[in-house]
Write a structure and sequence with these properties.
The protein has helices spanning 6-13, 27-32, 53-62, 82-89, 137-146, 169-177, 222-233, 245-250, 286-295, 384-387; strands spanning 37-41, 44-49, 64-68, 74-78, 102-104, 107-108, 114-116, 119-124, 127-131, 153-155, 160-165, 189-194, 197-202, 211-216, 238-241, 299-306, 319-323, 326-337, 342-350, 359-364, 367-374. The protein has 388 residues and is α+β, with helices and mostly antiparallel strands. It is globular, with a radius of gyration of 21 Å.
Length: 388
């Protein structure tokens, strides 16, 4: 294991971190490898800056990046009723979810609002993890369990994921784990050990590129794991990095608190496939979602192409959308894609303004711009890249 250099510790202290927000097991390694900015996600620090975000994007799509995503905290659900309880939390039908399989799911409240959009991992017949977006689902699940009448245990395990993403990620994984890792299917998981380090490896990730998530089971070995992966990836151009806003918006991937929240329902996002109102099992929000499906929605998420010069970076606030001077919605995520040579955005608009090629006006801090409703995702709509 590599011990933090005093200079690295001094650099970390300049960020002004406190004890009330947790650091990941990979924190010292990310500082040592060039992290210059952090934000807070699930009450933890997450590296958000390794230099030029455009270069980070090209590293991701042309070779591979390693990202600290330990902020994707796990809610562990075990006990005799774990499968039934997990189904209670989500409108996605889990009856065909096999042991060793992963599923993208939504967690909804009684009104059908979205509380989180985690990746669910089924490690055993009655053993599940919810790999979280940014909200306190551990507390929600524990509260639901109290009144569920089910025999379950809800906890947060000592688990911290890394993301190894990009076209060369498969070669790096083979260098680490051997040829057999290439048989791991998209949205499936396996248990592994690397130099005695206990891991779960899944073919998932928040990039829409070929990629893997590596879940560390022992937080004391985070620095060691990071260095081991970086060493294996050196011949393949592996670079330290962070989740790319450019790539995830290209892919139409949603960011909780940005593109959806507790007041957003799945139908507004076009995520009907994640809601099974016909299954026999009950789930929280079933009656409300049935009513919404029956009555329809008044707004819809769309893709936009924004005219004008390249945006200087992702938006940091919602931008109002108008049509003929009247409010029509808001831009939730926007960025310039150097690959597409276009400003692209996800937006929530009134349903009567959601048709393709509808022209709208966006009010930005730098002034107004025109935009056009387009299909999303903007790149690789069939998700052929992550499927390999």
């Amino acid at each position: 294991m590599t011990n933090p250099d005093p200079a690295d510790q001094a650099a970390a202290s300049r960020f002004g971190f406190g004890t009330q927000i947790r650091k990941s097991p990979f924190f010292d390694a990310t500082v040592r490898w060039g992290a210059t900015g952090f934000s807070v996600y699930n009450h933890m620090y997450i590296p958000r800056d390794f230099g030029d975000p455009v270069q980070n994007f090209w590293n991701l799509v042309n070779s591979a990046t390693l990202s600290d995503v330990a902020v994707e905290r796990q809610v562990e659900i075990t006990g005799p009723d774990a499968a039934r309880f997990t189904q209670l939390l989500t409108p996605r039908n889990l009856s065909q979810c096999a042991v060793g399989q992963c599923k993208y799911v939504l967690i909804t409240n009684a009104g059908g609002g979205i509380l989180n959009d985690p990746v669910l991992l089924r490690l055993g017949e009655n053993h599940f993890w919810l790999s979280l977006a940014d909200s306190d689902i551990l507390l929600w699940a524990q509260g639901v369990a109290v009144h569920s009448g089910m025999d379950v245990e809800i906890s947060e395990p000592d688990v911290s994921p890394l993301q190894l993403q990009g076209p060369n990620s498969g070669k790096i994984m083979q260098a680490l784990f051997g040829e057999e890792i290439s048989r791991l299917r998209y949205y499936w998981l396996e248990e592994h050990e690397l130099d005695g380090i206990p891991l779960i490896v899944s073919r998932t990730g928040w990039s829409s590129e070929l990629g893997y998530e590596i879940y560390l089971h022992d937080g004391s070995r985070g620095d060691e794991l990071w260095e081991r992966i970086m060493a294996a990836g050196k011949p393949y151009g592996l670079a330290p990095g962070h989740t790319s806003s450019i790539r995830r918006i290209e892919a139409g991937m949603l960011s909780y608190h940005a593109d959806m929240d507790i007041d957003t329902n799945p139908f507004e996002l076009g995520l009907d496939r994640l809601v099974d109102l016909e299954m026999e099992a009950d789930f929280i929000g079933k009656a409300a979602l049935a009513r919404i499906a029956r009555e329809g929605v008044s707004r819809l998420q769309v893709g936009l192409e924004i005219d004008g010069e390249p945006l200087p970076g992702p938006n940091t606030e919602y931008w109002p959308i108008k049509l003929s001077g009247e409010p029509a919605g808001q831009v939730t995520s926007a960025v310039y894609s150097p690959r597409l040579e276009s400003n692209i955005a996800l937006a929530m608009v009134r349903i009567e303004h959601s048709a393709l090629d509808t022209r709208v006006e966006i009010e930005m801090p730098s002034g107004s711009r025109h935009a056009k409703v387009v299909r999303k995702p903007f790149y690789d709509p069939g998700k052929n890249l992550p499927k390999g």
